[in-house]
Specification:
348 residues, alpha/beta, Quinone Oxidoreductase, Chain A, domain 1, Rossmann fold, 20 strands, 24% helix
């Protein structure tokens, strides 16, 4: 079988990959659709991010869906033919954080398509993958494979919303109109936010933000003073979802957050220098958010019930043997929001 494998920066190959044996507690899945994430793009362009570097060939991908082909003898809840979204996260279930219900902080996490440990954990951009029986989640008949492949980034945003607390009636600011920012808009709207404002420096994603329900979408690159009206009375917004990972986006938002406001930092863009005096004086609450756990199942259920519609975010789907073209397209924010790869007949 073939997979989409990163060897080094810009060295992305569609090549033969090793098949995996099937354990009693495992499931073999024919991959149908896989979404290209920001971390996949970091591997493609830079060979990694921060201290995480590709040191051996690794199949990319952690947003994917498919069809169960075979189940091990100890797996009874999944049968061949089931359509599934695959949770790329596999916590150990035994460490102190798993025992405390913080599985996303697992000390022995095996996350697909990640070079954080060696040997690297191979990703889902392969025609067939073998995963633990706890990872595939059956999807509703009405859900497309492309939508199912959005479960992972949606789960990230659902977890972030939990970090923020109640959004009912709140004034919400989202900085960064990439896929995570757009999904944060959808989640905040479903959670009852009274007003949602999105900022970015590119017009194309802001236009999509308007279409999916943002009350206002502001290009701070071309209109630097557009947020000034929100500074009145020490600030307007109750909650900030910072999805850009850009220091200037976070710092500039502090002046328009009201005292006691909550900052949920989703974007990762390197180390930042923050005006601590402002955070202290306004009693702002800075909260991190990292991956997800039970929110993956919730994401599948919410999409299946029609509570959140991710279809407008899927901007293109290309055959996986055109992976390099797809990765370049996904890197162009003027043309793309979420680019997905379509795999072989096994996953259809």
């Amino acid at each position: 079988m073939r997979g989409v494998v990163i060897h080094a920066p810009k060295d992305l190959r569609v090549e033969e990959v090793a098949s995996q044996s099937l354990g009693a507690d495992e499931v073999r899945v024919g991959v149908s659709t896989g979404g290209i994430c920001g971390s996949d793009l970091h591997y493609y362009h830079h060979g990694g991010f921060g201290t995480v570097r590709v040191r051996e060939p690794m199949a990319l991908g952690h947003e994917f869906s498919g069809v169960v082909l075979e189940a091990g003898g100890d797996v009874s809840h999944l049968v061949p033919g089931m359509r599934v979204a695959v949770n790329p996260s596999r916590p150990c279930g035994h460490c102190r954080y798993c025992a405390e219900g913080m599985q996303n902080q697992c000390l022995d996490m095996r996350f697909m398509g990640s070079a954080m440990r060696t040997p690297h954990i191979q990703g889902g951009f392969r025609e067939i993958v073998t995963v633990h029986g706890s990872q595939p989640v059956p999807i509703d008949d009405a859900l497309s494979m492309g939508e199912a492949a959005m479960a992972e980034p949606l789960a990230v945003c659902l977890h972030a919303a939990r970090q923020a607390g109640s959004l009912l009636g709140k004034q919400v600011l989202v900085t960064g109109a990439g896929p995570i920012g757009m999904l944060s808009v959808l989640v905040a709207r479903r959670a009852g936010a009274a007003r949602i404002v999105v900022t970015d420096v590119a017009e194309a994603p802001l236009e999509l933000a308007r279409r999916i329900g943002a009350d206002e979408a502001i290009n701070v690159g071309s209109n630097a003073t557009a947020l000034d009206l929100y500074r009145a009375d020490k600030g307007t917004f109750d909650v900030l979802f910072e999805a850009s990972g850009n220091q200037s986006a976070l710092v500039s938002a502090l002046d328009i957050l009201r005292p006691g406001g909550v900052i949920v930092q989703l974007g990762l863009g390197g180390e930042m220098t923050l005006p601590i005096n402002t955070i202290v004086a306004k009693e702002l609450q800075l909260r991190g958010t990292f991956r997800f756990h039970e929110e993956f199942q919730l994401a599948v259920e919410m999409m299946g019930q029609g509570l959140i519609d991710v279809k407008p975010l899927i901007s293109a789907t290309l055959p996986f043997d055109r992976a390099r073209e797809a990765f370049e397209l996904a890197s162009d924010r003027s043309q793309s929001m979420k680019v997905q790869l379509e795999f072989g007949e096994a996953g259809k």
